[in-house]
TrEMBL record:
Membrane topology: Multi-pass membrane protein
Keyword line: Cell membrane, Membrane, Transmembrane, Transmembrane helix
GO cellular component, one term: plasma membrane
Broad class of where this protein is predominantly found: membrane
Name this polypeptide is given: Putative ABC transport system permease protein
Length: 298
């Protein structure tokens, strides 16, 4: 691999880190399987693309955050107020977002941003055009990790974490768990939409199908990171998510170098997630057989 491929893999890894940090909130902190992700990623890309075309790339990021948060809040309201099952509520929101995203994109399946200024353009002179994207994306990831670290240690953040750990105990402490779930899902999907917004400006296009499989990518990143860095401190867990996302992206990059077609990457992602999830069970089964074999020989 040459430097250009390595640099590109790192940049996409940073973008997927933002996505994975959003999934970390819903899947790991709240223990909620949120399927809104595929729709909110495209939502962020669509909003960002349209505002970039209008000459407001930074406003596109802010709007993507707000729209993604709203989508997550809708899923949270379906779950808490209307008592819709977790998985079904995400599917309903994701389905509705397909039509919304298509309307945002002016009923065009793809929007090209080539020739338009992006969030990276002002930094070309400061960091050099060859490294502007890499540095900006890295700093953005650091900023988000710092924000999450600080927020999750606030009173609201601690209540959010406690809701995922023991909802019954939290309710007994007079904390509104429904509000915490809505807040958590809104924050999670805001980050997912932000990753979609950054992805669109990084790739210079927005596609209606760009969100397909993003949940698998996020889960793969989280699982890979946790398998490598299995420690409990919050900062370490957040860093492990970032490491997992970057490693995951390099795995796909290496796969492409070995001749695997881009159309097969979704299948490879599914296999990676399945393998990563199965490793603890396989290890437990092997250890059990060894102990059983030892007792038989005794």
């Amino acid at each position: 691999m040459n430097l250009f491929i390595i640099q590109g893999g790192f940049e996409l890894g940073c973008i997927f880190t933002i996505l994975s940090l959003g999934l970390f909130i819903s899947f790991k902190i709240l223990n909620i399987p949120d399927l809104t992700v595929d729709g909110s990623f495209t939502l962020g890309a669509a909003v960002s693309a349209m505002l970039t075309l209008a000459g407001h790339p930074f406003l596109g990021l802010a709007a993507a955050l707000g729209c993604g948060g709203l989508a997550g809040a809708v899923t949270g309201i379906l779950q808490t107020k209307l008592k819709v099952q977790y998985i079904l509520s995400g599917i309903l929101t994701m389905t509705g977002l397909y039509s919304i995203n298509l309307r945002i994109m002016d009923k065009r399946p793809t929007i090209s941003l080539f020739g338009f200024d992006s969030i990276f353009t002002p930094f070309n002179q400061l960091f050099g055009s060859a490294y502007a994207k890499t540095i900006v994306l890295f700093l953005l990831v650091v900023l988000i990790i710092v924000f999450m670290l600080l927020f999750l240690k606030t009173q609201s953040g601690l209540a959010l974490r406690a809701t995922g750990d023991n909802e019954v105990m939290v309710r007994a402490s007079s904390i509104n768990t429904d509000r915490m779930k809505i807040l958590g899902l809104a924050l999670a999907n805001a980050l997912v939409a932000l990753s979609g917004a950054v992805f669109a400006q990084h790739q210079s296009f927005a596609d209606l199908s760009s969100g397909i499989g993003m949940m698998v990518i996020g889960l793969a990143s989280i699982i890979i990171g946790e398998s490598l860095i299995n420690r409990k401190p919050l900062l370490v867990r957040l860093i492990s998510v970032a490491a997992g996302a970057i490693i995951y992206r390099y795995i796909l990059t290496i796969a492409l170098q070995f001749g695997i077609e881009a159309s097969d990457l979704k299948l490879l992602s599914a296999i990676l997630v399945t393998a990563a999830i199965s490793i603890p069970s396989i290890q437990s089964a092997i250890a059990f057989r060894r102990r059983k074999g030892g007792r038989n020989h005794a």
